[in-house]
Amino acid sequence: MAATRLIPLHINKGKTIAQTPADRTDYSKNEEKTEGGKYISSYECDARTADEKFLLSKRQYERITGRSQEHDIIAYQIRQSFKPGEVTPEEANRIGYELGMRFTKGKHAFIVATHTDRAHIHNHIIFNSTSLDCTRKFKNFFLSSFALQRISDRLCLEHGLSIIEPRPCRERKKRTEYPKRPSNRDNLRAIIDAALQRKPKDFEELISFLTEAGCEYKPGKRPSIRCRGQDRFARFSSLGEGYTVDDLKDAIAGERRERPTGKSQQVHDKKFSLLIDIQAKLNEGKGAGYQRWATLFNLKQMAQVMCFLQENEIDSFDELAARADAAVTQFNGLGDSIKAAEQRMQEIAALKKHIINYSKTREVYVAYRKAGYSKKFLEGHREAITLHKAAKEAFEQLGLQKLPRVKELNAEYAQLLEQKRAAYPAYRKARTEMQEYLVAQKVAAVLLEKEKEQAAMDERRKEEQRTDPHR
């Protein structure tokens, strides 16, 4: 994961045009931040004299073009910060170099300085605003920061790193509360918890574990402890409930309940949608504003699909298609089982109704048969006789030789209902997975088609250059 920012470098107030780039490059090349200059690289310039190179190219630009600006932008700086512990300084410097090459398209000289003095490794990429041929200047185009972030995200995906998940503006919230920094007592409690995990035999062995971890123990009437880097001792009794000497002895003896290690993390499903056919929308009358929004929307969906493929370790389109087919098969199987249960439940309900009607109208139908199927008797008991005949026809269609008991049917119905309810969570999950794989498959197909078109255009361009070298 890498966060980026593009910063234009103007002439600082009270300084000359020569001092401004020198200040920025000197800060970026600070040996304490780059481990003695170990993580510094450059393109089309020497990192030691980059500021002089930038100024020389600007003088040549003014001489060639005759143009000069009052509020000139001397250079641009790209800050690229990585997630702590996710990347090494060497890899961060390589990614920064590739970012500079792709963003400037190799037309501007730049230096890359990787700083390791913070928990998050970050790059300072400073590139000259004047091109290498000294005929043009870099134009800070509209939404350049989004383009820079997109290139950085692509590089992170290529190097197996995570990216920042884009969120709609309506879901973003301004931070009003900042995480509290752990205090010295918090650090002591964490060290004690780690020592307890080693299951010491007694309190003396616990103290030895704490000493191995860099803590210093002071015995006495009120035992105290401090860890490496702390000036003052902290009494065990001041660490809170569960950390007094008596509590620790009880914990070693197994008489204290385990402390909660933290809140369970909630996992939010990543959602993405199909790409918008921008050209079709423009034909319908949409304007340039909608085109910009739709373009950004499609880019976000593509980035989320790439994250989805990376998280699920899908390396090829064929594997994605196989996963999608498997998800469809699983969803259809669960749906068929639920439908079969529902159909059987309907049959049981209808059969119960016929059995009850048959039982209630049996005596009437026996009397009707003994009356020689009298029309007068039929007119007086038509409803009961009709229900009895319908029940007998249903039994014949089902091929029942012996009627089941209503109690058994109720038990089977309850069992099917329980199975149906238990299958619904898996059914909904399978439906979500199927939709994600199918949408990802369609988006990936569009991406592959665009790559093929780009490759074909590049091939045609190379062929034209071979046939017409002066072009």
Along the chain, the helix and strand elements come as EHEHEHEEHHHEEEHHHHHHH
Name the poorly predicted regions.
256-270
What percent strand?
Answer: 5-15%
Structural class: alpha+beta
Number of helical segments with 4 or more residues:
13
Query: Mean of residue pLDDT?
Result: 84
Please tell me about this protein's structure:
The structure is a single chain. The protein has 471 residues and is an alpha+beta fold. It is built from 13 helices and eight strands. The strands form two sheets. It has a five-stranded antiparallel β-sheet, with helices on both faces. A three-stranded antiparallel β-sheet has the order 6-7-8. The longest helix is centred in the C-terminal third of the chain and has 62 residues, at 406-467. It is flat. The two termini are 41 Å apart.
Briefly characterize the structure.
The protein is of the alpha+beta class and 471 residues long. It has helices spanning 19-28, 50-65, 89-104, 144-158, 184-197, 203-212, 245-252, 278-283, 288-311, 317-370, 375-380, 382-398, 406-467, and strands at 2-10, 40-43, 73-82, 110-115, 122-128, 216-218, 224-226, 234-235.
Search tags:
471 residues, alpha+beta, five-stranded antiparallel beta sheet, three-stranded antiparallel beta sheet, 13 helices, 8 strands
